[in-house]
Amino acid sequence: MQSSQVLGAQPQTAQLAKVIDHTKLTFAPGEDEEAAIAQLCQEAMAFGFFSVCVQPRHVAFCKARLTDSGVKVATVIGFPVAKVKLEAEKLQPTIGRQPLAEKLAETRQAILDGADELDVVIDVAQLKVDAHRGSEVARLGLKSIQEAAQGRPLKAIIETDLLSDEELVLASRWCAELRLLMVKTSTGMIEGGSGATVEIVKRMVDTVRKVYPKTKVKASGGIKTRAQAEALLKVGAARLGTSAGLQIVAGEALPASVLDENQY
After folding, report:
1. What averages of pLDDT result for each successive group of 10 residues across the chain (264 residues)?
2. Which of 63, 170, 180, 200 could potentially form a cystine with 114 if both were Cys, beta carbons 3.0 to 4.6 Å apart?
3. For the chain, domain boundaries
């Protein structure tokens, strides 16, 4: 389907595309990564997505491709290398567990490569300890990454599927107190997780608005259809992270086989 056809059929498509981070973070075995990322960039320019969101190793490539296009390049810091099971993560969280020194090094390199925005995975296990003990180790880690980012906007991924309501509110509040650009629901790398839901996004929005209204909420994880996207935006999500951007702006859902392979 040509971009002009979609835009003509859906008058609000351009407006919707402007809040989507067009995402490609996982690859099928044997997939040509460079070709896939080149296509991602081409789609982002054709449809007017806000950004592409890619692995750090692809930032420089995207930056060169998207020069003067108006499409930003976002990347992930401390992102899981493989999908994990929900029940196992609930027992012993590994999401965001990389040493802070590694996250700082990844941040500095992403800045050198030209990243416009950074989506940083919070240390979920440490967040849970902090919530129990009243400590702020995970918050201080975010602050260190914020300083290393040299003014680049940060979004903190808090992995809502693993959090109690108390932990969700605490993490969202910390992000607002640090005046981060956004607090983000999910990595999308938890098998069996719910990802972004209307209820969770609304809770996050209500929390950050009370602390620092300029901090917004990014919904990501399992967003597959236009109806889902519109429902999340209606309760206050300011940005959507999804690998189904083309189908969302066209008002269509991806086939189940594609969703299973590429869910973000």
Report:
1. 38 85 97 98 96 98 97 98 96 97 98 98 98 97 97 98 98 98 98 96 98 98 95 97 94 53 39
2. 63
3. 3-262
